[in-house]
Design brief:
CATH topology of chain A: Formate dehydrogenase/DMSO reductase fold
Strand order of the largest sheet of chain C: 8-1-10-9
Distance between the termini of chain C: 38 Å
Chains: A mainly alpha, B alpha/beta, C alpha+beta
Low-confidence stretches of chain C: none
Number of helices of chain C: 6
Helix content of chain A: 55-70%
Mean pLDDT of chain A: 89
Structural class of chain C: alpha+beta
CATH architecture of chain A: Up-down Bundle
CATH class of chain A: Mainly Alpha
Distance between the termini of chain A: 21 Å
Oligomer: heterotrimer
CATH architecture of chain C: 2-Layer Sandwich
Bound molecules: ligand MGD, iron/sulfur cluster
Order of helices and strands of chain A: HHHHHHHHHHHHHHHH
Low-confidence stretches of chain A: 431-440, 444-451
Number of domains of chain C: 1
Shape of chain C: globular
Chain lengths: 451, 763, 227
Amino acid sequence: MTHPAHQQINRDLLRPLMQTSWRFYALVALPAALVVAGLVSWFTQMFFGFGISGIRWPIFWGFYVTNFVFWIGISHAGTLISAILRLVNAGWRRPVTRCAEVITVFALMIGAMFPIIHLGRPWLAFWLFPYPSERLIWPNFRSPLVWDFFAINTYLTGSLLFLYLPIIPDFAVARDHATGLRRRIYAALALGWRGTPRQWHRLETAMQIMAIAIIPVAVSVHTIVSFDFSMAPVPMWQTTIFGPYFVAGAIFSGIAALLLAMAALRKILHLEAYLHPVHFENLGKLLLVMALLWGYFVFNERLVTYYGNGPAEMAVFWRTQRESFAPLYWTMVICNFVLPLSLMGIKRFRTITGCVIASIGVVIGMWLERFLIIVPALGHKYLPYSYGIYRPQPVEIIITAATFGAMILLYALFSKLVPIISMWELKAGDHPPADLIPPATEEHPLGELRL
Amino acid sequence: MDRRSFIKLTAVSGTTAALASCGDPDHQLIRFVPDEDIIPGQAVWKPSVCPLCPSGCGLTVRVMDADADVVRNGKAGLLHILAAKKLEGNPNHPVNRGGLCARGQAGIQVTYHPDRITQPLKRKGNRGDGAYEAITWEAAIAEVVSKLNEARAAAPEAVAFVGRGGESHRNTLIAAFLSRLGAPAPVTYELFGDDVLRAANGISFGNEQLPTFDFANSRYVLNFGADVLGTWDAPVAHARAYGEMRQGRVGVRGRFVQAEPRMSQTGASADEWVPVRPGTEGALALGLAHLILKNGTNANGTRPDPRAVSSIEGWSAGLPDYAPDAVEKITGVSASRIERLAREFTGESAVPGMRALAGVAVIGGAALAHTNGLFNALAVNALNALVGSVGSPGGLSFTPQFDVAAAATLPGVARQGRTLQQLASFLLSEQGADTRALMLDGVNPVFTAPRAWKVRDALNKVPFIVSFGSFLDETSILADLILPDHSFLETWSEAVPESGSAIAVVSAAPPVMKPLHETRATPDVLLEVGRALEKPLELPWQTFEEMLTATLTPLPAMTDGSDTWTDVQEKGGWWGTLPAAVRLKPDTTNTVRLKADTTSTPEFDGDAGQYPFHFLPYPSNQFLDGSLAHLPWLQEMPDPLTSAMWSSWVEINPATAAKLGIEQGDVVDVASPHGTVQTAAYLSPGIAPDVLAMPAGQGHTTFTRYASGRGANPVDLLAPLTVSTTGAPAWAATRVKIARVGKADGRLILFAGGMREHEEHGR
Amino acid sequence: MPNWGMAVDLDRCTGCGACVTACHAENNISTVGAEQASRGRAKHWIRVERYWEGDFPDVSLKFRPVLCQQCDNAPCEPVCPTYASHHTQDGLNAQVYNRCIGTRYCANACPYNVRFFDFFNPSWDKPLHLQLNPDVSLREVGVMEKCTFCVQRIKAATIEAKATEQELKDGDLQTACAQACPSRALVFGDLNDPESDVSRLSRSPRGSKLLEDLGTKPKVTYLSKQA
Ligand SMILES: Nc1nc2c(c(=O)[nH]1)N[C@H]1C(S)=C(S)[C@@H](COP(=O)(O)OP(=O)(O)OC[C@H]3O[C@@H](n4cnc5c(=O)[nH]c(N)nc54)[C@H](O)[C@@H]3O)O[C@H]1N2
Ligand SMILES: Nc1nc2c(c(=O)[nH]1)N[C@H]1C(S)=C(S)[C@@H](COP(=O)(O)OP(=O)(O)OC[C@H]3O[C@@H](n4cnc5c(=O)[nH]c(N)nc54)[C@H](O)[C@@H]3O)O[C@H]1N2
Ligand code: SF4
Ligand code: SF4
Ligand code: SF4
Ligand code: SF4
Ligand code: SF4
């Protein structure tokens, strides 16, 4: 596959950093407004009491925990995918990796907000952290919520590193092209990158280590998130399948998110020359595989429950299958299975538009999946006298919408400050001429790029 | 220095501090000096008496120190008092033996209610719009005195009194007050009262009194519609005995059958529920009697009490009209089932060991509130007499009752006069015009009496109304003067339970705490008024306490070595064997007249074509007739059958509802020829297809922040029919129609999610 | 060390609800009002479940008081990140309001749905606050509350017994619900004392545990209604 010449790359990919048009402000205005609305809602909830939400006896988790699982799921787009692609050294990955990794970092940040937002007394959230209090009171390490704390923090730190390392050379380029304050900022961020062979060598090794290390972390994160449910004796929650089921779902929704991000960048930043249909097609195939995997897990979960025919489980089962929650359930099935299968399964539809439509479906479907795991089960737990119906309230809906706003906002700001496509990897990608790469020597396997 | 002087000291410094701090002298925080010994954090237990229903359960009140905001002669301040904290059942009291019903538990909220009337009020503005101004007790009493003087001068009939029923010192004092005044005896009214059963017992057993049931020793209980475990008569006593009947005896478990068209809380506990057509309970009872007479299987061979059976036509002939097939036609209960019930009731089918034990029949509630209620009661009495359950273990008996009038040496004081209906029509007639003054004592007839009686209009005819109640309600808001009573915890509380105990009981206890507000005990107010009249009434006591001392001290001490009066104050009453002199003589003067015209078939108001449903209002488990709807704990307590909170509803059979397109919670109009109410539908499998049932209690327009404007009142629909030969309202004799108005709008608030434990999904 | 337990005789229970109000009175449970009640915020530490069976005319109703079962293997305990829900020496499932940060995880984990959340700060229209029991702390917004087996009564009685150097006799100590129950359907006591009423009843052939198969090891025994 061919990319523009290197000077062209620099010009194209540094343009968003160097110049800002009114369009940019127009673009960020709406998401920014959403975020503000979300913050206001949250403080209103703290001020008037949790009661303004729709949470009730016995459905004590609703939109907030749904969003938590959803965004942690989305976060599996980047780091995991790009790590795998790096390890298998898929050449086509080069323009994709960074916009993927960015999603991870921001999705994690947003997701990690919810364990705090959903607290009855958020101002005491720090009691979840293991800090040496003067009372020598530690959190309960048996609680999955405390596991979440560790898992998410590890993944966030790892992802940040994994994102930052390969940006260093690009920061250097930005530094060299920028002037004044910008120059000093990029200089600081570039950590004095000179592109010496030793630096290249270190970078490559670090990338290798991170790529390998991050994969088990990513897998463990969503497994632990699934433990929040499977550890509690709630009908349809306590099942061994939840670990892999959640991880698969996470990657599934992650790829969808990535496809949407790429399509947006391509349009808005005019990166047609870099993000080719083939990228979409390849990721589309990945989406297809995940859709099949997801269907496989759902089928498992459903059949085993149905066959077991436990009274408590069946109450929940029928609520989703053919009673009150059926409309949502079948929407989920269409969005997560029927749609991606029919679009991504047929080559003719595996276009950019096709990918976008399928991805939108999957994002919606996966949000519904999390909602349908949490709410119907809590509303129909064992003793029918204590059944209940959950109705989300404005505060929850606004905060949910705000998270999407936050994602867009952060993404826009990032692509304004950092080349959203890894320039050096791109350049290194298309077998550059000899004058660019001298023959590799013993101590520098990759040789020194003259950028 | 001792604690007293210490507290004084802090009081003073507290005052000065307050004076220094805030300007407005009316609102400065004053620490009043408590005039009682208080040990901080130390709980004390004191006896009291639950006033919320006539059964007169004994209480044990937990009392601890607390800081109360009070107003004392115009100054707001803080008073460190001993305050009631929790009401428990008095474990030694023969009626409730330590138990307490939900209403009794909530009784404490009467005392601490935010909307209690805290001082004397005088009406300003128009009658009924609830505008009042505060006046001093002196002014208030002076006004009552002058009005009574006028009235008395005008005519002896010129003063009327409407109060609570039941034997008690308070009511005896009121009766004495009125008779000395030359006024007619007090009018007592209770929507769900039991005068019909009293009358029937007068005829059948020569005893106009409610029966006491020995369920604890019963083999078999056949209950015709009495909510004995929920709201009827002495529910706590019944429930206690019920528990014993079920599991209190080794190897013996009493069987319990309930016959009623709408499943009550009691019916829900029965082993067998027999939906009998409304008003045909008596026929069913005689159906059983017919078979028992035929088979000659009278349990213990005793000859039935002639009075009981002679009141039933055709008894000597073996009740030919009540053969099973005939009874099946009347009651809708199959002949075979009637035969089985008869065998079970007599113990024929019981295991040998149990045969000896008595079976007992009970009647109450709606069964007495049909036009033929008296007949139904007489029939059940006869059935009991037939199987010899009267006076025998496991059967029914009559609690020896303390005769307050006799003990107080007030001979010839009529305890009960006209019925409310008679009073109302009298006030609306010409002669009614010269009634100058009317007194209300904690009753709300405007809310609970059939609209056709026009109680409101009648009361409005009276130029001067004084109320002693503690709350503004639909009736007391008509008062020109309000002299608020203490709450039962702040004064001498007493009652003479009519039933629920094998031995005689007088519940009586001294105040458990200082009055929170500037209220006064009504009996003491009456005594004071009596003294202040132009021609003083010369009642023999200065205070109510004196009256109690006078009547109770002569009784034999409960624990030997101690004097009765101290005993009473420690134990919260007196119980034991009554000296004959002060034992209430059975009053059977009017029984013969009663027997004459007793209709056996129920009449219903409203054309069956236009109004296809029988309408059964019933006393709510939380609010009874509505007098307790102001207590938040009871409003939020889920109703036993529906789990409804803060709501009112009409119960309808699901099949009927389906026909009419009515779903759970839908808004419906229930209409009779006398009115319409709008409420929510509750689909209940426990009600006959041609019956609608509705709890009383909600639908208040004026009754504190918690009850006002909430739900609907079934009384609005009631026909003015009365039970034949007794003046009692036949509140179960109205026919109604129902129509769907709209879909569920959230007015029916249920705590429960599911209705059934095992759902059928079908796979 | 005693092991507190309860027996619920369904053959005695009449569904009257006295236990429900008694618990409100003893434990300072705030009433939430009609609007909040309709939104599922009513707090009834003990509730009397009622289930319809069959259809008219062959219909019957079943009552079952349900309170915290004080499970010996309580699912609500391990999931709590702050130990606010934890097990005590004498076998109670304790709830430390000050420790609770309101994750509501415990309530999800509790199979009996007997945990209730404070959605708002409690309030009492004066002078209703005078009814409050000084032995029971109030719960602020955002914390979880539930039946404590009237721990304040347990503590008071055991301390008293210790002070007066007397054995705590069976029946000396009653929970508010058991004390109120008119039909004596609720019996509370020490399961470690084989002679106590509650031990005797817990051994009854009519006895069973609620949702026993979940392995929560409840300390409340239900005695079935006899036919
Ligand atoms: N007005 C007034 N002031 C007083 C007193 C009084 O009677 N009246 N009493 C005085 C006395 S004797 C004392 S001991 C002090 C007590 O005063 P504090 O030491 O403040 O004790 P608390 O207010 O009980 O608890 C303080 C905070 O600790 C939180 N907490 C609970 N568990 C933990 C935990 O694991 N970690 C952390 N970080 N916080 C936790 C509680 O939620 C609470 O908000 O107050 C003194 N001040
Ligand atoms: N729910 C809850 N309970 C708690 C705590 C909590 O945070 N929450 N905190 C605990 C702690 S740390 C403590 S220290 C204790 C404190 O609890 P307590 O020791 O009970 O302290 P107070 O309640 O402040 O004071 C007790 C009584 O002493 C009276 N008093 C005031 N001054 C004097 C005096 O000079 N002489 C005498 N004889 N009496 C006086 C007061 O009027 C009050 O009635 O509470 C403990 N209990
Ligand atoms: S039965 Fe009547 S007297 Fe007894 S506690 Fe209940 S309300 Fe009070
Ligand atoms: S108080 Fe006793 S009888 Fe009444 S509902 Fe509760 S447990 Fe049942
Ligand atoms: S019943 Fe629920 S709250 Fe009580 S101990 Fe068991 S799990 Fe915990
Ligand atoms: S709500 Fe409170 S008690 Fe329950 S798990 Fe969370 S912190 Fe623990
Ligand atoms: S034991 Fe105490 S806390 Fe538990 S339900 Fe009974 S009264 Fe309430």
